[in-house]
Inverse folding.
């Protein structure tokens, strides 16, 4: 975990208030590194500052339960508020967030953390009716402006 | 917290011990199959800090690409005065848990996320060869 390098990431915002963690490492447009070839989570995330917190907009070719359909177009999961987390003992810098989506009969908790320039996410999808198994996937994202 | 009866939970169940004995956090997780879900018994503590114990229900999760055994879980509830979201998943036999906690009653305390890695002591040792089996 490179909290210090995270704090130096680009941000359009000014310096954070003293009692609010710096969220700049998490902001921006993030692209799935495998473009969905393996992982079944979102293909793109847009993380935006909102007040002292974040909103997250996710796009994916699959619904939140991870079941894909051939030829399906990218699907907008929508924009939702996200909870922001700091690392233990480092209250000045946010390195993680979580957001909840309710799509397709599933409640999906999308959790993410920033590490060495990438965003690592897990999507945990639980059916509303409890009638089937939940779904899990892990994905890696790089900033959209960075060419891989 | 129910799931399909056929979902295999054996890879997740058992007693899990945190590799890191130097920090304060979730030290032990005991996961038991419970009517298709998982019942977690969680011990938090650390050096110089006595353990506190919490029970949480967790939903087993299978890989999004198929219908195989459970490879992770999601548990949401409270750890003492904190709200908690535990995202656990298996990685090559180890259990990784992303622990998210917040103090809803004290906004001065920032929400925290930490990652911890766990092993099952009974499975950490090489298995004994079956009786009569030739040794390498």
């Amino acid at each position: 975990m490179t909290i210090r390098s995270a704090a130096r990431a680009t941000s359009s915002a000014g310096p954070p208030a003293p009692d609010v963690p710096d969220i700049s490492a998490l902001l921006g447009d993030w692209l799935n590194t495998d473009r969905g070839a393996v992982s079944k989570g979102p293909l793109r995330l847009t993380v935006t500052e909102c007040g002292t917190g974040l909103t997250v907009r996710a796009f994916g070719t699959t619904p939140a339960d991870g079941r894909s359909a051939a030829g399906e177009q990218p699907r907008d999961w929508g924009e939702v508020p996200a909870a922001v987390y700091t690392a233990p003992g480092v209250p000045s810098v946010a390195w993680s967030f979580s957001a909840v989506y309710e799509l397709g009969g599933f409640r999906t908790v999308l959790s993410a953390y920033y590490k060495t320039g990438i965003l690592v996410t897990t999507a945990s999808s639980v059916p509303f009716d409890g009638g089937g198994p939940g779904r899990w996937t892990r994905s890696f994202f790089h900033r959209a402006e960075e060419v891989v | 917290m129910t799931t399909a009866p056929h979902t295999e939970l054996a890879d997740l169940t058992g007693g899990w011990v945190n590799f890191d004995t130097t920090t304060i956090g979730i030290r032990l997780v005991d996961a038991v199959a419970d009517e298709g879900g998982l019942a977690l018994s969680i011990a938090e503590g650390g050096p110089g800090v006595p353990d506190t114990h919490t029970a949480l229900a967790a939903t087993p999760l299978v890989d999004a690409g198929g219908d195989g055994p459970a490879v992770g879980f999601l548990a949401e509830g409270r750890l003492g005065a904190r709200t908690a979201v535990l995202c656990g998943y298996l990685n090559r036999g180890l259990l990784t848990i992303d622990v998210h906690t917040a103090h809803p009653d004290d906004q001065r305390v920032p929400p925290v996320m930490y990652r911890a890695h766990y092993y099952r002591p009974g499975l950490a040792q090489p298995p004994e060869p079956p009786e009569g089996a030739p040794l390498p």
Q: What stands out?
A: Helices of chain A lie at 3-7.
